[in-house]
Write a structure and sequence with these properties.
With about 400 residues, this protein is of the alpha/beta class. It has a domain of about 200 residues: FAD/NAD(P)-binding domain (3-Layer(bba) Sandwich), CATH 3.50.50. It has twelve helices and 21 strands. Helix 1 runs parallel beside helix 6, helix 9 packs antiparallel against helix 10 and helix 11 packs across helix 12. It binds 8-demethyl-8-dimethylamino-flavin-adenine-dinucleotide and P-hydroxybenzoic acid (PHB). The site of 8-demethyl-8-dimethylamino-flavin-adenine-dinucleotide has 36 residues, from helix 1 and helix 9.
Length: about 400
């Protein structure tokens, strides 16, 4: 059995990038179909980002999906950097006039799904063999299998929002695509626990035994991470071992306030910097993790995906409203200008805050000197702060 579906924009991937795009397009009267190889429950359950820039909050407001975010999100005016027991607070509010909001990606995704379902968005979940085709013709298509049927979507444009492991980026010929990558020689082991956070603001700590991060999802739910070996496994980390290691890395003063408990999620994520250029090929536009990855140290991945989508939604709206293709033609260059700046910040903060196995004593001293410089310099602290709260959208 086979089926043909017609739409204006076929969106591959139903993560935050794909969902927000479908919402913004619907508000502009543009029809879309969204495909995902997983189902809604799986996507909503994926525990990932936790920190939203002000620009991301504004984008979600403009998309009409920020009511719960305003009720439940925690505004944060600063965060701490810690280095072997010394602490330096980056006062986001004083240095930039802006703050960030702690609100989980799981919640952003739920809010977007609720709205898209209420509006009758066409979704295909659990799809297989997704294949974008005819991208450089005037009749682009996306083929896939759904519930034992072969489905073809006939569309004007394809939005590749299918994350780092998706198929969209791979549909760009090797002769066209350039990629840039740095794989870090460690990962982050993260746990989630229903206990109040150790501190009311985030703490990023560089300790001789490795990086640690104290984060949260709410006043009663904490998220903690520690740097681990790339080939490590969660089974090697009982909760007790995790709490002991975290306490050492956060230092005795903070550890004294640590409320431990049974974790209900534990996972290891590798750290990677990655950029694919260009972010457009014919009718295909890449957005979010499909085009770029940042290490999580700057809390930028989700925010960067949202920034891409704002540009892409604006460009598609200009095309359909006014037959004006200038923004579509400029999308890749405009998105990449921001991407590279955010890559730089995430790389810089990752380099400062982790223990690198290859570091010589000289590089270790350089990290310490940079921390000391930051601690004593308002200018250097402001540079960190303006990147952390989010660079302005061009
Ligand atoms: P997603 O969320 O990966 O969604 C892609 C969707 O595409 C689907 N898919 C396919 N569908 C159809 N066909 C295929 N062949 C497909 N292949 C994949 C997938 O099922 C999925 O539903 O990408 P998107 O939308 O671009 O969103 C990006 C963000 O998810 C990501 O950047 C952030 O989570 C990164 N990140 C963080 N970002 C922040 O802004 N702040 C943070 O504090 C933060 N912390 C994190 C993070 C990511 C982490 N991990 C595990 C990667 C912490 C962690 C631990
Ligand atoms: C998180 O809470 O998951 C989190 C917070 C800040 C980061 C990365 C992850 O930089």
């Amino acid at each position: 059995m086979s089926e043909t579906v017609k739409t204006q924009v076929c969106i591959i991937g139903s993560g935050p990038a794909g969902l927000l795009l479908s919402q913004l397009l619907a508000m502009a009267g543009i029809d879309s179909v969204v495909l995902d190889r997983r189902d809604r429950a799986y996507i909503e359950g994926r525990i990932r980002a936790g920190v939203l820039e002000q620009g991301t909050v504004q984008a979600l407001e403009e998309a009409g999906v920020a009511d719960r975010l305003h009720r439940e999100g925690l505004p944060h005016d600063g965060f701490d950097l810690a280095f072997d027991g010394d602490r330096h607070r980056i006062d986001l509010k004083a240095l930039t006039g802006k703050s960030v909001t702690v609100y989980g990606q799981t919640e952003v995704t739920k809010d977007l799904f609720d709205r898209r379902f209420a509006d009758g968005q066409r979704f295909f979940f659990n799809v297989e063999d997704v294949t974008p085709a005819d991208l450089t013709t005037d009749a682009p298509r996306v083929h896939f299998r759904h519930e034992d049927r072969a489905v073809t979507v006939e569309c004007d444009y394809v939005a590749g929002c299918d994350g780092f492991h998706g198929v969209s980026r791979k549909a760009i010929p090797e002769t066209v695509l350039r990629t840039f990558e740095r794989v870090y020689p460690f990962g982050w082991l993260g746990i989630m626990v229903d206990r109040p956070p150790v501190s009311h603001e985030l703490i990023y700590a560089n300790h001789a035994r490795g990086f640690a991060l104290a984060s949260m999802r709410s006043k009663t739910r904490s998220r903690y991470y520690i740097q681990c070996e790339l080939d490590d496994h969660v089974d090697n980390w009982s909760d007790d071992r995790f709490w002991e290691e975290l306490a050492v890395r956060l230092g005795p003063e903070t550890a004294a306030k640590l409320e431990t408990g049974p974790s209900f999620e534990k996972s290891i994520a590798p750290l990677r910097s990655f950029v694919a250029e260009p972010m457009r090929h014919g009718a295909l536009f890449l957005a979010g993790d499909a085009a770029h990855i940042v290490p999580p140290t700057g809390a930028k991945g989700l925010n960067l995906a949202v920034a891409d989508i704002r540009l892409l939604a604006r460009a598609l709206t200009a095309h359909y409203r006014g037959r004006d293709d200038r923004l579509l033609d400029g999308y890749s260059a405009a998105a990449l200008r921001r991407v590279w700046k955010v890559e730089r910040f995430s790389w810089q903060l990752s380099t400062l805050m982790h223990q690198f196995p290859e570091n010589s004593p000289f590089e270790t001293r350089m990290q310490r000197a940079e921390f000391d410089y930051l601690s004593g310099s308002e200018a250097a602290s402001r540079s960190i702060a303006e990147n952390y709260v989010g660079l302005p959208l061009e």
